[in-house]
Predict the 3D structure of the following.
Amino acid sequence: MKLSTYIKQKPLLFIGLLSISIVVLFFVSLQTGTAALSPLTAIQTLFGNGTEKDSLILFEFRLPRIVIAILVGAGLAVSGAILQAITKNEIAEPGIIGINAGAGLAVVLFIFFVKDIPFGFSSTYLLPVTALVGALTAAIAIYLFAWKDGISPVRLVLVGIAVNSGINALLIIFQLRMDPKDFDQAITWLSGSIWGADWTYVLAVLPWVILLIPLAILKASSLDILHNGDDIASGLGIHVERERGIFLLIAVGLAGASVSVAGNIAFLGLVSPHLVRRIIGPKHQMLIPASALMGALLLIVADMIGKNLMAPSEIPVGIVISALGAPYFIYLLIKTD
Amino acid sequence: MKKSLSIMLGLILLASLLVACGGETQEQPTEESETEEGNEARMVEDDQGEVEVPSNPERVVSQYYVGHLLTLGVEPIGTLPTELDNPYIQNQIDGIENIGDPVDVETVIELDPDLIIASDQQSYEQLEKIAPTVLIEYGAHHVIEEMELLGEVLGEQQQATDWIEQFEEKGQQAKQQLDGIVAEDETVSIIEIWANQIYVYGNKWGRGGYNLYNVLELTPPDMVQENLIDDQPYLEVSLESLPDVAGDHIFLSVYGDDGGAERAQEIRNSDVWQSLDAVKNNNVYEINIDDFFYFDPIALEEQLDVQVDLLLGK
């Protein structure tokens, strides 16, 4: 039988393959970079037997970046998968429906109004929280605007796109009124990059990913039913509005946490579930973990490319993902004709 | 089925974390031994307070300030790519490594510096893990302050003082040369045209502003005085607001890429531009943006000569 059919029947195999790929790429990424670190040295250093310099490179700089790439990749991918299910729209993702923009606006507002907090403190603790609050606020705004005797999935997407445009307009207004230096700071913070990732960033996003993704997997069957339509879902005894609300919250939490440490990485939440769905089908019990792994994989690869293609300068990972994601998207559009 | 999946995911993440945490204590000794080796340490002031630096730094990585360092007699071993494009120091930058923008920490580690001069907070947080690092924020100080700070940090205070005196001398001479050229009540502005924006500069962001307003002590227009002198580095203005901002003498630069040159031509032909006093009296001086981009000591001295010549009508 065809390979794709075979894999569809054995989704666990695919998930296993993805996991192994991540582990492999993890080690590959550990020893790529402008500082030379051979594979053997990298492994030695990992287990505590490296030189001070190598340990510095590995534990302070390379490892946190890879861990962030895994966490954020998984977070954004699962967020995208959930949003695609509850809006029944395959191009939904946190970037398109304004959640990332909401997080961004909160960061810009924070920098605009609160100027004298030492950057170190704020970047570690306050900005991530601010970003999350922003994401949540955007989600609430979208939800309220889309409410009309309940939420129809189509309205959710359309309102999301409108809110996204509105927030981006606000961002431009602030750009004009802010001290250019402050705005530069905001923009570098927002533009989808994991340069400068360290362990505090990991701590900021870890709890969200570790709690919310398993939660989403546990509730995966509800997602399947919601995806089939509100009437069927109600008929099957699902409290449609409540479930949809909960899933929206999960998606927002994941997206907000991810944006708060890595800025706005668009497309990842869209592409990961897409790629995976084509291979293992739409059952969310498999789709969610597979999307998480695929997202992590894509982001690790994108980061490796971004860091090394134009060394010593760096291409922000958000740009690499867009550069890879856009052609794939066009390919999809052509194929579905 | 689902449980084992979650467990598997959790284990992978947990494993990488445990390994990382296990190894973290390893890098603690790095900071101490680097300052103890050979060089004694001193305490100096930077933008964040007191910092410990080696007494005689020999391998300095500096994000910006290459012109400053060279003037103080110190050649850095690594800097940002834009610094390497500075037209006034091309004959002195052989052997200075490009550390990338944003800073590539691994390149810096490989250079094995004993002192790092950071120019923004985010980079500082990364760089201070590698070697003793001071923070001198780019654009937050005038060149005189920067030279004083850097002189302190590098142990070249005498060189710094010497240069400051010499530069002030040069400024005085230039003022004398220009006596009477610009009247007491006339104002001078710096305007830059891009494809979609028009910028006005003060004394804090290159384009020769420091020379005009602090050295030659020319008067800026009110709007510039309120917002751009010792305050914001630059502001975007609209074409319509030019009459309020332009002043009696205009130093004009154009960012020609992406349609800037065309836009500049459009603006020069516009009614608003033609009606400006400075334009009518032929007091518009064109400066080259590449030459006036930098504002380190070497660039400022060269730019001062250019500005004086332009004002004298040569």
